[in-house]
Design a protein that fits this description.
Two copies of one chain form a homodimer. Helices cover about 30% and strands about 30% of the residues of chain A. By secondary structure, the first copy, chain A, is of the alpha+beta class. The first copy, chain A, folds into two domains: about 270 residues, 4-Layer Sandwich (L-amino peptidase D-ALA esterase/amidase); about 120 residues, Ubiquitin-like (UB roll), CATH 3.10.20. In chain A, the strands form two sheets. In chain A, strands 1, 2, 3, 4, 5, 6, 7, 8 and 9 form a nine-stranded mixed beta sheet that branches. Chain A has a six-stranded mixed beta sheet with strand order 13-12-11-14-10-15. In chain A, β6 and β7 form a beta hairpin. In chain A, α1 packs across α2 and α5 packs across α6. Chain A starts with a strand and ends with a helix. The interface between A and B is large, with 63 and 63 residues.
Chain lengths: ~400, ~400
């Protein structure tokens, strides 16, 4: 597997674009993205578990019922959620995109992200569609920009991999910075691949993947109403169609996982106001599920997040978060270390503090990527979760988001 | 029921004191509290559900096995948790207190609060005990001060009430500002009463009370390792002993609830870095349990807390928190209003936004006590939860707590 350029346009037969259509007041911020496959593609998706769901999710779910899609239309600046006319507007968006592209409205994935509870006027979207479609090209970067909300950096990645002797490509873009917490899809992620795979196997690969990728990311403990992850696979790589388990399916899964984990780390590291990526790796758990619960509890702890911001080796807060996680764990067997590019320092052994150099710990914790390594000595279960530190900037951003 | 002065010394037969013994470097900060009943008292307690438990909790639990206690010794500045010698030190603290007071060590409740994972040297505590005991008097205020950690204000309250024609008194002190999240007792609370009540009925009253009081408070979602709520009832009011359910028991429960709710509101309003008390009242739920889950989800939402800090009527975040709470709720029937001393403003009706004056909403949200009122239109269940806003100051306090 090799990292390549191109994001969602790295796979053959995919075009993208992103422009400013006017939903956002700031004219320099792109707010409308379009991704198109030149041929029909199989499609899969996972959606937020929040009972309050954005209207676009209901429409997308309906459109993907047949496992086929050709385009993604996504605006930022308004979530189109908790609006009485939400579904009608989402349908109108997909209809307008379909008409412009000359495809079926049922083959359009529609998504929105931004403020909840403000009516979304589709007029600027419809007016901008001709120019948006006109400019379609190898512009995954512009699409990645257009879906950003409070993200400080666009997030795009692509890899090449081999299936049945054919070179395939897979790429993805993501937006996600706040209102991010593991409970199925927790952000907007659009993935494209030219690998040939049936819709059921694509869905199987995606559903299995999110358990250890997007479900293990949390920025603030708030599970969004609008988030979804979609994959389009258009078969342009001309590999033998993956229609069951086996080596080819595993190759595809590995490539998908490379994309999702890369995006997870970027989303966490670009969490609202974040200065550091906080990774927690748990091993020695009774099983993987137990390891996941503990890893997530640690990266969700406000007190741990604030300590990491302050580069304070306050490991007691990590023990505390393990203890209240709800997982069954023998706290007298827990070891904890902090690891970063500067090295590692063990701070807790068998559930009790051990002597360590505060200076060394400080140096390690001042890095921008911190891994909290937890060994439970209780089995083979392991998991990794990704979060970020809690900072003044998080409070500033969210104290007055709507204005 | 009448609010009275005296805190934990309002009830007859209770004395208290608080001094600086030297656990904290700052000599102006009291760090050791003692509460004593002049006669043996029945006792009840609830403890944190965190699997990582402070050593004092294990010792207190053992001492309260017979339902009798006479004294509380509590230090701040060090939690005596995750230390290999923790229980031995907690036993030593209670033994020293017992010897000084001439009582049985089994009748001592011992508690510690502060940093986790730093060995607690009992020497300064033992050295200070004679002076601490010497100064015992109507000094509930000094005890309230001595148990504070990051609290900005001591928290004490007392009420008088009547049982069987006799005037009884009940008072309490609490410490709690960070690492506060509903899961049984979530802070240190010491309550004293001169009401005569058997140990089993006292425990029954306390266990029932915390479900709707301390279990409904959250500052930061982190469930502490050391928290407990204890009640001592010494019978000095000479009322007919409450040994079963009935009118007298209900009178006692009402008085207990007045103390606990008052302390809950103070703890939430004095949450680390808080500028506002955030109260969430849910009605019309299928049942009380559903209402509790929703009320807690709202006051725990980082995004809602940050919006309240910014006096931003961002009700979409409240709908979002209702949606991911895990409670079964029809989101198309949800009404939301913001209420404060300045009035009230309805912002959401039947799950969708309604027009409201942003100016009026701002004025309401600039107050220091904000109530988010949620009506679900689905039954008779109701609940109230208490939290606080999320501020820059929370991050500052917790970015470097240990130094």
């Amino acid at each position: 597997m090799i990292e390549i350029q191109g994001g969602v346009c790295a796979a053959k037969g995919f075009l993208a674009n992103g422009i400013h259509c006017g939903i956002r007041k700031n004219k320099t911020k792109r707010d409308l993205a379009l991704i198109v496959s030149q041929v029909p593609a199989t499609a899969a998706a996972v959606y937020t578990t929040n009972l309050v769901k954005g209207a676009p999710l209901a429409v997308t779910k309906k459109h993907l019922a047949n496992g086929i899609a050709r385009a993604v239309i996504c605006n930022s600046g308004n979530a189109n959620t908790c609006n009485a006319d939400g579904e009608a507007v989402a349908e109108e968006m997909s209809r307008a995109a379909a008409e412009t592209l000359g495809i079926d409205a049922n083959d359009v994935i529609v998504a929105s992200t931004g403020v909840i509870g403000q009516p979304l006027d589709p007029t600027p979207i419809k007016a901008a569609l001709p120019a948006l479609a006109e400019g379609l090209g190898a512009h995954g970067d512009l699409a990645a920009e257009a879906i950003m909300t409070t993200d400080t950096k666009p997030k795009e990645i692509a890899y090449s991999f081999t299936v049945g002797g054919k070179e395939c490509h897979i790429g993805g873009i993501a937006k996600g910075s706040g209102m991010i917490h593991p409970n199925l899809a927790t952000m907007l992620v659009f993935i494209t691949t030219d690998c040939a795979i049936t819709a059921p196997m694509l869905q199987k690969a995606l559903s299995a993947d999110v358990v250890d990728s997007f479900n293990m990311v949390s920025v603030d403990g708030d599970t969004s109403t609008n988030d979804m992850v979609t994959v389009l696979a258009n078969g342009c790589a001309e590999n033998p169609v993956i229609d069951g388990e086996g080596e080819d399916f595993e190759s595809f899964r590995a490539a998908l996982r490379a994309v999702t984990v890369w995006l997870c780390r970027r989303i966490a590291g670009d969490g609202e106001g974040a200065t550091k990526l906080l990774e927690c790796t748990v091993s020695g758990a009774k099983d993987d599920a137990t390891a996941r619960v503990i890893a997530k509890s640690v990266i969700c702890s406000s007190l741990t997040k604030a300590a990491i911001f302050g580069a304070d080796a306050n490991w007691g807060r990590i023990l505390c978060a393990i203890g209240y996680s709800g997982a069954s764990v023998d706290v007298t067997k827990v070891d904890v270390s902090f690891v970063s590019a500067k090295g590692s320092v063990a701070v807790c052994k068998n559930g009790a503090g051990i002597e360590f150099s505060e200076e060394v710990a400080k140096e390690i914790l001042l890095e921008s990527e911190i891994n909290v390594v937890i060994a439970l000595g209780d089995g083979d279960g392991c998991a990794t979760a990704w979060g970020c530190d809690l900072t003044y900037e998080y409070v500033r951003i969210n104290g007055d988001y709507r204005t």
